[in-house]
């Protein structure tokens, strides 16, 4: 991923901002634009830019409620009704694959479709496709050219989703080490493929079928029945119900790829979700993502 490409994705994300904030956000050197991972808007605060080293404020960019409303209008293409289902879950996906997270006053289920009203802050995440990110570990996740089930581990923000997306792309299109595979991608939060109006905004391969916005426990059996996948990919295994979805796929003949928040194998074993994933017996490898920024590296290890 080049600096120019990373900066161009930042500039695309800035197009969602009102003109006053957009002008300030674009007035940065190329290197700073390339490092930004999120734009954070909070009513009564300045616009913050999130980079690996933390958040920094842009001077003279006090955010108002009207600013948030304008971002939501632009992200939903002035049709919030069409985005109501994902907004009920606290986010929406804009053209280009930009995920806008919402925070404010939560409504109980059944009240105005649930979700969030009186939005008080937004987080615009800037996804960047790093084609080739998974190449160093791909051969170690194959046996006789076929993928084996693997867990991808890192702390929050460590690059798991980026790595999983590239693994899906490589397995789907095929490489010198493996023929193309049918991949079923469970994109519950809209971050892997960033489907917008039925079309993935981020490259996930030509043999990939995406189930967008569906809980894993429902999506996995649906995909097994309907799409006969050779690989099932899932992001963010964090709940007991997610583990149940994984366990339900044991013996289905498909390899599973899943991401989990954990800094190490020891960290994974320390939590109930991690222990359950290891005990289900489906996973043969773990990929550890270590370091940050340009120093980030990944390595595969065999699981007992």
What does this structure look like?
The structure is a single chain. The chain is α/β, with parallel strands linked by helices. 30% of the residues lie in helices and 30% in strands. Strand 2 and strand 3 form a beta hairpin. Helix 7 runs parallel beside helix 8. The protein is globular. About 2% of the residues have low confidence.
Instruction: Give the helix proportion (percent range).
Output: 25-40%
Please tally the β strands and state the result: 17
Task: Give the helix tally.
Answer: 10
Average pLDDT over all residues: 90
Sequence of strands across the biggest β-sheet: 13-10-14-15-9-16-17
- Weakly predicted, low-confidence segments: 110-114
Largest sheet: 7 strands, mixed
Spell out the helices and strands N to C.
HHHEEEHHEEEEEEHEEEEHEHEHHEE
Shape descriptor:
globular
Query: By helix and strand content, what is the structural category?
Result: alpha/beta
Q: In what range is the share of β-strand residues?
A: 25-35%
**Rg, alpha carbons:** 20 Å
Distance linking N and C termini: 34 Å
Task: Please name the defining characteristics of this protein.
seven-stranded mixed beta sheet; 30% helix
What does this entry show, briefly?
The protein has 304 residues and is an alpha/beta fold. The protein has helices spanning 3-14, 19-26, 30-35, 65-75, 84-88, 160-173, 216-226, 240-248, 265-270, 272-279; strands at 38-42, 46-51, 54-62, 91-94, 98-107, 115-125, 142-143, 146-147, 150-154, 183-187, 195-196, 199-200, 208-212, 231-234, 255-261, 285-290, 297-302.
């Amino acid at each position: 991923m080049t600096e120019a490409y990373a900066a161009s994705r930042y500039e695309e994300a800035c197009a969602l901002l009102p003109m006053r904030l957009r002008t300030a956000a674009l007035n940065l050197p190329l290197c700073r634009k390339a490092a930004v991972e999120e734009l954070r808007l909070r009513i009564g605060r300045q616009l913050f830019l999130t980079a690996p080293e933390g958040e920094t404020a842009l001077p003279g960019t006090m955010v108002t409620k009207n600013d948030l409303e304008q971002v939501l209008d632009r992200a939903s293409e002035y049709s919030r009704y069409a985005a109501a289902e994902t907004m009920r879950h606290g986010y929406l996906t804009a053209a280009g694959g930009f995920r806008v997270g919402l925070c404010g006053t939560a409504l109980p289920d059944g009240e105005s479709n649930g979700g969030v009203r009186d939005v008080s802050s937004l987080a615009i995440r800037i996804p960047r496709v790093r084609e080739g990110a998974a190449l160093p570990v791909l051969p170690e996740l194959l046996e006789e050219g076929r993928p084996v089930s693997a867990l991808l581990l890192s702390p929050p923000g460590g690059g798991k989703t980026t790595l999983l997306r590239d693994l899906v792309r490589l397995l789907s299109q095929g490489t010198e080490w493996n023929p193309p595979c049918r991949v079923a991608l469970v994109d519950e939060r809209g971050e892997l493929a960033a489907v917008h109006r039925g079309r993935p905004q981020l490259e996930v391969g030509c043999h990939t079928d995406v189930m967008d916005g569906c809980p894993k426990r429902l999506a996995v059996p649906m995909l097994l029945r309907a799409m006969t996948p050779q690989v099932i990919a899932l992001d963010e295994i964090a709940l007991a119900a997610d583990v149940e979805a994984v366990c339900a796929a044991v013996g289905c003949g498909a390899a599973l790829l899943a991401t989990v928040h954990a800094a190490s194998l020891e960290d994974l074993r320390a939590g109930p979700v991690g222990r359950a994933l290891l005990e289900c017996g489906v996973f043969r490898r773990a990929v550890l993502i270590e370091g940050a920024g340009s120093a980030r590296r990944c390595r595969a290890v065999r699981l007992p």
